[in-house]
Design a protein that fits this description.
Pfam families: GYD. By secondary structure, this protein is of the alpha+beta class. The protein contains four helices and four strands.
Length: 107
């Protein structure tokens, strides 16, 4: 892609999710709930890049792109408000972003 036409990438967020009692009781609907989450994120201007069902301390891991922290927070508040999961969210930095951060820190 030409650097002049390259769209600015949106910030990435990694959300670690745990099922609530309600969520685990309704585990059979988990893939349908994932589709609803992706659609809700789109409506708010974010993208669900990936969703993984995991084994270990977290039940799911979501990777979301959003234009800003307010949008990311709105998406995850809406998700949590349904009552099936609780979230812990991390801002993730890609290689190019990290190179800019290191350059800025180095002066």
């Amino acid at each position: 892609m030409c650097p002049l036409t390259k769209a600015k990438a949106m910030p990435t967020y990694v959300a670690l999710l745990n099922w609530t009692d309600q969520g685990i009781r309704n585990y059979k609907d988990t893939t349908e709930r994932a589709e609803a989450f992706a659609a809700a994120a789109q409506r708010l201007g974010a993208n669900l890049l990936n969703l993984y069902w995991t084994v270990g301390p977290y039940d799911l891991v979501a990777v979301v792109e959003a234009p800003d922290e307010e949008t990311a927070t709105a998406v995850l508040l809406q998700l949590g408000g349904v009552g099936n999961v609780r979230t812990t969210t991390l801002r993730a930095f890609g290689r190019e972003e990290m190179n800019r951060i290191v350059a800025k820190a180095a002066g």
